Amino acid sequence: MEPARSGAAQVVALVVFLGLSFGAAAIGGAFTARSVSDWYPRLAKPAWTPDPSVIGLAWTLLYPAIGVAGWLIWRAGPSRAASIALSCWAAQMILNAAWSGLFFGLRSPRAGVLGIALLLMAIAATIWTSWRVSPGAAWLFLPYLGWVCFAGALNVAIWRLNV
Question: What angle do CA 143, 68, 17 make, to 5 degrees?
Fold first, then answer.
């Protein structure tokens, strides 16, 4: 049996997972900032496109939840199942940042569709693999999955409107 992780280790790990989550947000934000003032406003968008403030609020709530979910998986203790779940968590973080690079950085809604499809698979895999390690982590990922499904539909609509 593994010894319990100390309170200090728990706090450090939580800060690391939140830092990784906000790091992905910062990378995505850097790609977004380059296009949001000139390229993105000129794109045709569906009438149901949310206001940018709604998008910002959603991500402001989701990124901490993603970080806490990773921490909850880690906190469950070392095991093969936890290692797999953490690998899925890391993959979805990479794909999260990559989507912004594909859509905004490359200015390619088409590439964004591919990126968001991969991201959705990685989020689903994270939920699936984390469920048996930390159901709380899996629950924290459900709003994220819902938001990325919506973002995926929006990405597809923008791509189709701008072909």
Answer: 125
Q: Are 52 and 130 in contact (CB under 8 A)?
A: no
Assess contact for 109 and 162: CB atoms under 8 A.
yes
Tokens of 92: 């979805």
Over residues 75-88, the pLDDT tens digits come to 998 999 999 999 99
Of the candidates 22, 11, 48, the one whose C-alpha atom is nearest the C-alpha of residue 158 is 48
Nearest alpha-carbon partner for 70 in 94, 34, 98: 94
DSSP 139-160: HHHHHHHHHHHHHHHHHHHHHH
pTM: predicted TM-score of the whole model, two decimal places: 0.94
